[in-house]
Amino acid sequence: MAAQTPLGPVPYQPLFCEENAWQIARVARDHGLKARVVFVTNEHKHVAMLRQSASKQSDGLIVWDYHVFVAVQRDGRWEAWDPDTTLPLPTPYERYIAESFRDEARWEARFRPKLRVVDADRLLRGFASSREHMKDDGGQWLAEPPPWPAIIGEGGAYTLAALIDARDERAGPWITPTDAITAIER
To answer: Is 30 a catalytic residue?
Structure first.
């Protein structure tokens, strides 16, 4: 399966957003574009997002344990590249944040998102995915895994578990959606 991006098709597998984001970040880097990978979660692992294609609600509301998408800078503007949204790919970054987290301050605290912005080059070098979070207690897949080999970065400095741990700030601070608009420039 592939996600269609302005740079052509990119490998995509439903429910493996962290690996999909890694693939998009790799293609953006290979085309000389600046990119950031944005992780979304919270302490409760119940983060609400709107405009998500997996939702059955008219506004695209879904509660994920975490979500990951990529911000790519093209022609001096930041765009959100998320193959799991109902918004166009790409969508202007500020619009994506505004529509995906609209009225989040009024949501119950246990559903409010925290975002972490990670430089794509850093992530591409160090991300490692064991895919264990997608298996049940008996070792059976909860969702069909990607057809590509599991991603093993240099040294595995960034595991998914560490990147979505809302109490761990080693890979960068956790911020609000509003703060994520300016944090993309850092």
So the answer is: no
